[in-house]
UniProtKB/TrEMBL annotation:
InterPro entries the record matches: Arg_succ_lyase_C (IPR029419), Argininosuccinate_lyase (IPR009049), Fumarase/histidase_N (IPR024083), Fumarate_lyase_CS (IPR020557), Fumarate_lyase_fam (IPR000362), Fumarate_lyase_N (IPR022761), L-Aspartase-like (IPR008948)
Domain of life of the organism encoding this protein: Bacteria
Organism: Microbulbifer elongatus
Broad class of enzyme this protein falls into: lyase
Similarity annotation: Belongs to the lyase 1 family. Argininosuccinate lyase subfamily. In the N-terminal section; belongs to the lyase 1 family. Argininosuccinate lyase subfamily.
GN (gene name): argH
Protein name: Argininosuccinate lyase
Alphabetized Pfam families for the sequence: ASL_C2 (PF14698), Lyase_1 (PF00206)
Length: 473
């Protein structure tokens, strides 16, 4: 099928491209649009200018640019940055990408000196540098939101250290726990996420600038200096790998996928807990929406949407892994496809964290409902088994005795704690009056009095440790 625009080219001179010297005809108009990335990579514009300023300063320090040339370039780039911030920059698809747009604009503003900026570098190492600068900034923002969320969770956990709720396995009542203990389980997941994020940042924070197209450059550049100016820990070691590596982007998306998986698990619990069937939690109205037809509805849209966005981020991880799996060294045009998945993964992770960090401290447990639910399902059966073991009964025998006791309580339609001593003693004569101390919900949670346990004093101690860890960042 023909395209009326495919051969028009608007009379474009191929030499008008900054790379057009060896071409005899202009780029096809459709191909120009198809290969352009400026529509999405312009969001790295300020990082591109940051990298260019460092590169120009280094070139002046090693004598490739004069002091006056550097001053002109510096002033021009800073003016362009202001244009971009003000939304006044004239982006052009014909100039392909953020790098060429800014370089062309610099030459428009300061003349031929602007053409010297690209000395000793390539768009290959330039884009690799820009992505790392951009991602490093986003990592720092995400780390800040993670810290804010964890602080809110720990504060709420400490407040609810005594609030009893059912703990589940297979979504069946298992043993009583405290709401504070449950919130600290979420916090543990996020602590691992934070550690992964900081580990990822170490590998992001290496400077590929100076690797040029793939082999380095013959100019007397100082890569350690540009790395220092840009706040990188060090230059990358190999020029081929420097321009083609996107491991750091994949690693960040893997972090994001795990983070969203954890937020999705918490979201699923919030969706369950706010339902009328559970009714454990009150979610403030500002995090919910209503129904267009059912006036009674209060839908937990924020946790539902976070849960839904998890699939989106998982998709970005697979997209980047697939993008890189067959690329020969060094740079290939395929890598233009790295930015949109990376950008969206970072945006999604940050937005979901912001939503949770606002929402989590505002959760209000319905304590009476939680306590009543914990009393159902024979959640203290394990405590009875432990009681028998302490009385000298072998665990497997104790397990059988408790199973028989539960079956009897089911027949009577009551809980274990509601059985009389005489009824319990039908199953074991070692059971005494003190058995009721362990059959209460309060006694059950208090008995888990060790590090990592659900006992209220252990929850408070865990909150203190978590708070110190957060403060050490």
């Amino acid at each position: 099928m023909s395209n009326d625009n495919s051969s028009a080219n608007n009379g474009q001179n191929p030499a008008a491209k900054l790379w057009g010297g060896r071409f005899s005809e202009a780029t096809d108009a459709f191909v120009e649009r198809f290969t352009a990335s400026v529509m999405f990579d312009q969001r790295m514009a300020l990082e591109d200018i940051q990298g260019s300023l460092a590169h120009a300063q280094m070139l002046s320090e090693v004598g490739v640019l004069t002091a006056d040339e550097f001053k002109q370039i510096e002033g021009g780039l800073k003016d362009i940055a202001e244009e971009i911030k003000a939304g006044e920059f004239p982006w052009s698809v014909a100039l392909e990408d953020v790098h060429m747009n800014i370089e062309a604009r610099l030459t428009d503003r300061i003349g031929a000196t602007g053409k010297k900026l690209h000395t000793g570098r390539s768009r290959n190492d330039q884009v690799a540098t820009d992505i790392r600068l951009w991602l490093r900034n986003r990592i720092d923002q995400i780390a800040s939101e993670l810290t804010r969320l964890q602080t809110g969770l720990v504060d709420l956990a400490e407040k609810e250290a005594d609030t009893i709720m059912p703990g589940f396995t297979h979504l069946q009542s298992a043993q009583p726990v405290t709401f504070g203990h449950h919130l600290l389980a979420w916090n543990e997941m996020l602590t691992r996420d934070y550690e992964r994020l900081m580990d990822c940042r170490k590998r992001v924070n290496r400077s590929p600038l100076g690797a040029a197209a793939l082999a380095g450059t013959s100019y007397p550049i100082n890569r350690a200096r540009t790395a220092e100016l840009l706040g990188f820990d060090a230059p990358t070691e190999n020029s081929l790998d420097s321009v083609s590596d996107r491991d750091f982007a994949i690693e960040f998306c893997a972090f994001s996928a795990l983070l969203l998986t954890h937020l999705s698990r918490a979201s699923e619990e919030l969706v369950l807990w706010t339902s009328s069937q559970f009714d454990f939690i009150d979610l403030p109205d500002r995090f919910c929406t209503g129904s267009s037809i059912m006036p009674q509805k209060k839908n937990p849209d924020v946790p539902e949407l976070v849960r839904g966005k998890t699939g989106r981020v998982n998709g970005h991880l697979i997209a980047l892994l697939t993008l890189m799996k067959s690329q020969p060294l060094a740079y290939n045009k395929d890598n233009q496809e790295d930015k949109e998945p990376l950008f969206d993964a970072a945006d999604t992770a940050l937005d979901c964290l912001r939503a949770f960090a606002d929402m989590a401290p505002a959760l209000k447990p319905k304590k009476e409902n939680m306590l009543a639910a914990a009393a159902k399902g024979f959640s203290t059966a394990t405590d009875l088994a432990d009681y028998l073991v302490r009385k000298g009964v072998a665990f497997r025998d104790a397990h059988e005795i408790v199973g028989q006791s539960v079956a009897f309580a089911i027949e009577k339609d009551c809980d274990l704690a509601d059985l009389s001593l005489e009824e319990l003693q039908k199953f074991s004569d070692v059971i005494g009056e003190d058995v009721f101390d362990v059959l209460t919900l309060e006694g059950s949670v208090a008995a888990r009095d060790h590090i990592g346990g659900t006992a209220p004093n252990q929850v408070r101690a865990a909150c203190e440790r978590a708070r110190k860890l957060i403060a050490s960042r």
